[in-house]
């Protein structure tokens, strides 16, 4: 990722395209990591070893993928603001 000051400077020179692939990849990984940190037992066992409770609702990909999506949306919104493109479209 680039520093916000450098992004603002590039925009002042007329740059209108910037690669944010690395930032979005990290946002995805962060979403997964944060979820696993919150529910570590669910990624080691199907049934909680101490309580006997099923953990499917935590390791179900639909559940943890939602946290990944939220992390990506947050990072994209940050990029849109940094690039002064929030609420704008290339389509006219």
Explain what this protein looks like in three dimensions.
The structure is a single chain. The chain is an all-alpha fold. The protein has one domain (4-82). Helix content is 58%, strand content 0%. The protein has four helices and no strands. Helix 2 (21-38) packs across helix 4. The protein is elongated and about 60 Å long. The two termini are 30 Å apart. The relative contact order is 0.15. The model has no long low-confidence stretch (mean pLDDT 91).
Properties at a glance:
58% helix, 92 residues, mainly alpha
Question: What are the segments in which pLDDT stays under 50 over at least 5 consecutive residues?
Answer: none
Biggest sheet features = none
Our measurement of the CA-to-CA distance between the termini, rounded to an integer number of angstroms, reads 30 Å
Structure annotation, total helices: 4
Order of helices and strands: HHHH
Q: For the residues shown, what is the average pLDDT?
A: 91
Class based on secondary structure composition and strand pairing: mainly alpha
Strand content: under 5%
Task: State the domain count.
Answer: 1
Q: Roughly how much helix do the residues carry, as a percent range?
A: 55-70%
DSSP strand tally = 0
> What is the radius of gyration?
19 Å
Oligomer: single chain
Silhouette? elongated
């Amino acid at each position: 990722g680039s520093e916000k000051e450098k992004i603002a400077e590039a925009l002042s020179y007329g740059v209108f395209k910037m690669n944010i692939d690395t930032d979005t990849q990290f946002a995805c990984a962060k979403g997964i990591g944060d979820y696993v940190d919150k529910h570590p037992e669910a990624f080691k066992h199907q049934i909680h070893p101490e309580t006997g409770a099923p953990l499917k609702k935590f390791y179900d990909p639909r559940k943890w993928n939602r946290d990944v999506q939220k992390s990506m949306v947050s990072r994209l919104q940050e990029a849109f603001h940094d690039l002064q493109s929030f609420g704008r479209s290339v389509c006219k």
